[in-house]
Amino acid sequence: NNNHYYLLILVYLHFLPKEATETSSSVYVASVLVALFSNFEKGQYLPLNHPKQMAHPSMLLHRPLASLPSSAFFFLPATLALFTTLFILFYIFTTPSLFISHQHKHNLKYPLGPSQSSPLTPILPSNGSFHLSAKFPFNDVFGGEDGTVSPVSSRSHFGSKGNSMNDIDVFRDGDIFLEDYQQMNRSFKIYVYPHRRDDPFAHVFLPVDFEPGGNYASESYFKKALMNSHFITEDPRKADLFFLPFSIARLRHDRRVGGGGIQSFIRDYISNISTKYPYWNRTGGADHFYVACHSIGRSAMAKAEDVKLNAIQIVCSSSYFLPGYVAHKDASLPQVWPRTDDPPTTTSERKKLAFFAGAINSPVREKLVKFWRNDSEIYAHFGRLKTPYADELLGSKFCLHVKGFEVNTARIADSLYYGCVPIILANYYDLPFADILNWKSFSIAVVTVDIPLLKKILRGITSDEYSSLRGNVLKG
């Protein structure tokens, strides 16, 4: 079932002024330790298929417990807990988990006979900065006129901990992505639960009739673009997915609901559609999705557990440490700041090594200012800037995206817009479109424990590597 992947592509198409990356974490070895300690203890605990066990099955029921010292009953679980804890801590602090890409590749080849539907159709609303042509520049991205990719030799590591450059392709699988897009464009359909304009909460369910703005504009842009696209069907029998059209951001600012009433509102809404329509109960909500960019969305489903566990959540807060986010089921939404002015000239001279400006509202930012506040090459500002923010971005080689109260901000989008290579300082964070975009080709991820080594890492990037990174940034 490729519906989830098609949805990911759909979200990607709405936000081609990009942002994004990858993450993956696992404590698999801890479970291995459990198995080892369970099956063996000084040769007395044998695997079930061991010859001695098979020859004497009664051994499974009659262990010589009396022969074990009493301290063993405390020592074994205590030792197991200690080793497991030490391993997890070692893993977290030494593994650059942000650099591990998902191995969830979609390599299905679809029959691409003559299309019976309309040609590739732009699905974005008309807007100066949100433009998607009906024809993707795949030749420009992938090299030759035939869309093939020239072989690239393995590149060296960036600094001591930075991501390694094994290729320079912006897309992970460009040819497969194009095939999937064409297949999706022909047949993928979404049913939106209907609401009338005289509905008391019409502003929550219907797309806005103005150009969205502010930190949470991504949420409104997605709904507005989707509702005007050819992916919408009024026949739920033809639908691949079902869209829950409520807006968390607009609920947050509705005085009748507010932040404290969102959980009950969502619970009642799911109860209503599951009673009125058969589609939710058919799958338990697994073929339903909603979009939320406001940070309060992380707890909005607390009273609607089925939504959190089963439905696809497209959210800006895609941190593995958030209880509401389920990696590999949910998708990361890029947070963008709407712009209507002309794109800036990105060929300006960049004299600063790195730049960041923002409030000190997290331990990560506190650590950054502790080490680099007075540095002459890394400009870490935590107050009012004397120069325009845009000028600082245009004058810096690297722009820092540092986790604050939440990991989601528009800084990655800002970096790409102003031609600055993003440096991402946020552990265990799913970057948007990680299955589609090769983030290593246009950004650098640094684990937060390596903040003291930040200058060494950035200085270790060769001029050729920087040119490759920035060239891919400018392709956006």
Jot down its keywords.
476 residues; 5-stranded parallel beta sheet; golgi apparatus; signal-anchor; transmembrane
How would you explain this protein's 3D organization?
By secondary structure, the protein is α/β, with parallel strands linked by helices. Among the domains are: 28-94, no CATH class; 109-332, no CATH class. Helix content is 34%, strand content 9%. It has helices spanning 3-14, 28-39, 51-55, 72-94, 138-142, 174-187, 202-205, 217-227, 248-252, 258-276, 279-283, 305-310, 363-372, 389-394, 411-417, 454-459, 463-475; strands at 190-192, 241-243, 288-292, 312-315, 331-332, 352-357, 378-381, 396-402, 421-425, 444-445. A five-stranded parallel β-sheet has the order 1-2-3-4-5. α15 (411-417) links the parallel β8 and β9 (421-425). α2 (28-39) runs antiparallel to α4 (72-94). It is globular. 36% of the residues are buried.
